[in-house]
Design a protein that fits this description.
Length: about 130
């Protein structure tokens, strides 16, 4: 039986982090896994790409993901790719501008893949500076 006091989305993110631990920890590429704006996991390379010292520092950002980390002019590109991943179960390969902690834009290539974990759909993102 599940614990009643534990948020099911927290359980999902903990499970995803555990399942992908080796990839998140050892990949030389920036990665994040997105369930919703309150349930995201990042690796250190993603934090560093955006100018944050640690995953913990990055995780303290409470704005919606696209507002905090994606330039306004490329937000729709990311949102459109996410909708296709969730609705059509297809990956995307897109170029967008993300925002560093300083607000400076950084051009990146994002490979987004839909993944399922315990009946929930999430988006796994590999991000590379270009």
């Amino acid at each position: 039986m599940a614990k009643e006091n534990v948020n099911p989305h927290e359980e999902i993110m903990n499970g995803v982090q555990e399942q992908l631990k080796e990839v998140l920890d050892e990949s030389k590429q920036a990665i994040y896994v997105y369930l919703d704006d309150h349930h995201i996991t990042y690796n250190q390379q993603f934090a560093s790409l955006l100018g944050y010292k640690s995953i913990e520092e990055l995780s303290k950002v409470k704005e919606p993901f696209v507002d905090a980390f994606v330039t306004e002019k490329t937000q729709e590109t990311l949102i459109h790719a996410y909708k296709h991943a969730m609705e059509d179960k297809i990956p995307s390969d897109i170029e967008i501008f993300m925002k560093r902690k300083t607000g400076e834009p950084v051009k990146v290539k994002v490979i987004m893949v839909p993944i399922a974990y315990n009946g929930e759909l999430l988006a796994l993102h590999f991000v590379k500076k270009i």
